[in-house]
């Protein structure tokens, strides 16, 4: 069969919806300044879908640093990969500051978080090693695990008894192969907002010989006393062997980093294929990240404001009887019951009648019959934004329960 013939019949789990979703539910165009209110299809909407946790995307000091760096260096410098010709003292300085913030010996910059995590996993293990990972791990972790040519074991999300069972299986394997065990979890799970049980996982180190890799994309800048992340929140920074985070969330930028011991980071510098064979992070992004990190550390009021909005939103939703799961982070899921048609009509009504823009998640990401609306509070939202949203959600919930969304009335927005 011609592989293109296959594409006609099998568009994929998300692609199957493209005819009705494209341009509205998928690949929507939010326009204007990054802010709680932006333009969608020509009108203003209250936006709860951007991971701009600390409001740094349009912070005046950040915009100034970005602009001045772009004017001085352009977007091309430095040309080439870090190992060949793309290395600068600014890259080193950012790595030094990130390592110190995470109380690690060293850190290494990554062009993109997703590619970086895939490459970190690939570099850390060989065919004799075993990976043990959480069933709800992010796609970047799953793709990294798929590259692994050795054994891998998955445990049900945050189930410590099953983790112990899989560690026993892993131990039996490495006793034969002479390899090691890498456990991978997340600090904050980006869909449901619950936390990886880092405190309980590190306790298992007393019984099992493994190293722990934590993806803290949503925890960096939002969790912990200083914003150093979920490992700080649990008080286990020293027990996390390899700490990973991205600039795409609280730092409102592009790129990421990995932090660990000097020996591990030196090894990764010379073995991360996603960095060795890719262009260095451009100078404006590096200088911009230095400014963002400075603000993250020096302005705790940004995180305080974020959590004021988080608490108001989550407590308000729970008081109105909404199911927000077990979130312990700013990520705020709202679980409703309904069909895919009802899900589409719920979002359409939110956007067109209430001018509220948030993300929607349906099967196969969540079980059949479940609609998940995902809200991302930020430090630049207001309590009035929260109040209006809860009122709108209450009306949406009422309409859903009365069956007002069970007819297919969504226009076809395909472009």
Key attributes of the depicted protein:
single chain, 7-stranded mixed sheet, 40% helix, 415 residues, alpha/beta
In brief:
This protein has 415 residues and is an alpha/beta fold.
Describe the structure.
With 415 residues, the chain is an alpha/beta fold. Helices cover 40% and strands 15% of the residues. It is built from 15 helices and 14 strands. The protein has helices at residues 3-9, 18-21, 60-73, 89-101, 113-124, 139-147, 160-177, 198-203, 230-234, 262-269, 273-276, 283-298, 300-319, 340-352, 383-401, and strands at 30-31, 37-40, 43-47, 106-110, 130-134, 152-155, 181-186, 211-215, 242-246, 256-260, 332-337, 356-357, 359-361, 370-375. A hairpin with an 8-residue loop joins strand 13 (359-361) and strand 14 (370-375). Helix 3 (60-73) runs antiparallel to helix 12 (283-298) and helix 4 runs parallel beside helix 12 (283-298). The longest helix is centred in the C-terminal third of the chain and has 20 residues, at 300-319. It is globular, with a radius of gyration of 22 Å. The mean pLDDT is 94.
What is the topological layout?
Layout: H1 3-9, H2 18-21, E1 30-31, E2 37-40, E3 43-47, H3 60-73, H4 89-101, E4 106-110, H5 113-124, E5 130-134, H6 139-147, E6 152-155, H7 160-177, E7 181-186, H8 198-203, E8 211-215, H9 230-234, E9 242-246, E10 256-260, H10 262-269, H11 273-276, H12 283-298, H13 300-319, E11 332-337, H14 340-352, E12 356-357, E13 359-361, E14 370-375, H15 383-401
Parallel strand pairs: 3-12, 5-6, 5-7, 7-8, 8-9
Antiparallel strand pairs: 1-2, 2-3, 4-10, 9-10, 11-14, 13-14
Helix pairs in contact: 3-12, 4-12, 5-6, 13-15, 14-15
């Amino acid at each position: 069969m011609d592989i293109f013939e296959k594409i006609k019949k099998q568009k994929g789990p998300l692609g199957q919806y493209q005819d009705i979703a494209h341009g509205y539910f998928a690949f929507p165009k939010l326009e204007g300044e990054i802010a709680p209110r932006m333009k969608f299809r020509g009108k203003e909407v209250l936006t709860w879908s951007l991971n701009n946790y600390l409001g740094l995307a349009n912070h005046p000091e950040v915009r100034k640093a970005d602009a001045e760096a772009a004017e001085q260096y352009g977007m091309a410098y430095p040309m080439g990969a870090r190992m060949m010709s793309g290395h600068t003292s600014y890259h080193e300085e950012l790595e030094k500051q990130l390592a110190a913030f995470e109380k690690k010996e060293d850190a290494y910059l990554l062009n993109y978080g997703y590619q970086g995590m895939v490459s970190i996993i690939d570099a850390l293990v060989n065919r004799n090693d075993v990976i043990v990972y959480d069933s709800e791990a992010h796609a970047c972790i799953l793709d990294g695990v798929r590259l692994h040519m050795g054994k891998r074991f998955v445990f049900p999300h945050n189930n410590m008894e099953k983790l112990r069972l899989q560690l026993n299986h892993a131990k039996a394997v490495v006793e034969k192969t002479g390899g090691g065990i890498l456990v991978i979890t997340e600090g904050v799970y980006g869909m449901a907002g619950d936390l990886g049980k880092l405190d309980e996982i590190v306790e298992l180190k007393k019984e099992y010989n493994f190293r722990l890799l934590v993806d803290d994309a949503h925890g960096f800048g939002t969790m912990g006393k200083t914003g150093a992340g979920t490992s700080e929140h649990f008080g286990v920074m020293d027990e996390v062997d390899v700490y990973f985070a991205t600039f795409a969330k609280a730092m409102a930028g592009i790129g990421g980093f990995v932090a660990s011991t000097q020996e591990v980071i030196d090894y990764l510098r010379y073995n991360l294929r996603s960095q060795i064979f890719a262009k260095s992070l451009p100078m404006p992004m590096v200088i911009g990240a230095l400014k963002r990190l400075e603000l993250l550390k020096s302005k705790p009021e940004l995180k305080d404001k974020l959590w004021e909005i988080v608490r108001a939103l989550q407590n308000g939703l729970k008081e109105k009887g909404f199911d927000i799961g077990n979130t312990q982070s700013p990520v705020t899921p709202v679980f409703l019951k309904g069909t895919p048609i009802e899900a589409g009509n719920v979002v359409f009504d939110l956007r067109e009648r209430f001018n509220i823009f948030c993300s929607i998640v349906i099967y196969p990401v969540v079980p059949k019959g479940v609609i998940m609306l995902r809200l991302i509070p930020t430090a630049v939202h207001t309590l009035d934004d929260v109040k209006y949203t809860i009122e709108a959600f209450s009306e949406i919930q009422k309409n859903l329960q009365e069956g007002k969304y069970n007819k297919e009335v969504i226009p076809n927005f395909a472009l």
